[in-house]
Specification:
Layout (H helix, E strand, L loop, with lengths): L21 E2 L5 E6 L8 E7 L8 E3 L3 E8 L2 E5 L5 E3 L4 E4 L5 E5 L5 E8 L7 E3 L6 H6 L4
Antiparallel strand pairs: 1-2, 2-3, 3-10, 4-11, 5-8, 5-10, 6-7, 6-9
């Protein structure tokens, strides 16, 4: 029996050498592993922060984010929560629209994966260190 509606099925795949690492204005290196245009539902990136560096305060509007720490030592700040130390194996959840930053407090690079749901887009990114343009504040109902 045939189904009345068929959903497009995702095909299994292996992606070798996905994306190249780029230095961002957030003061960290990002390597996009999965996301747009291939998938709008989820994105995955590898982040690397050099010793002594703190990333820029930022938020992702409408997108939840998880950090999974692989190596190094960090101090993460999420919203109004107190700063927390993080290390290999730690998982950090950042709700949509909540500002965040992470500092490398170790002697080696801090490396973690960033999982975004739905997928990260430049439009969802908000730099919390710089004021939003008036047009963006008005569109979101912010004075």
């Amino acid at each position: 029996m045939r189904r009345a509606s068929r959903k497009r099925r995702a095909r299994p795949r292996v992606i070798h050498g996905a994306g190249r690492e780029l230095f961002t204005h957030e003061r960290c290196f990002i390597r996009q592993l999965w996301g747009l245009p291939a998938d709008r539902t989820v994105s995955l990136a590898r982040a690397r922060v050099r010793p002594g560096v703190t990333t820029a305060w930022h938020a992702l509007d409408g997108t939840a984010e998880w950090y999974l720490v692989f190596s190094g030592a960090g101090r993460v700040e999420v919203g109004r929560s107190r700063p927390r130390r993080v290390g290999p194996g730690d998982l950090v959840f950042i709700p949509p629209g909540v500002r965040q930053r992470i500092a490398n407090i170790g002697r080696t690079d801090l490396v973690f994966h960033c999982l975004c749901l739905p997928a990260f887009t430049p439009a969802c990114y908000h730099d919390s260190e710089r004021p939003r343009p008036r047009s963006a504040r008005s569109a979101k109902g912010v004075p």
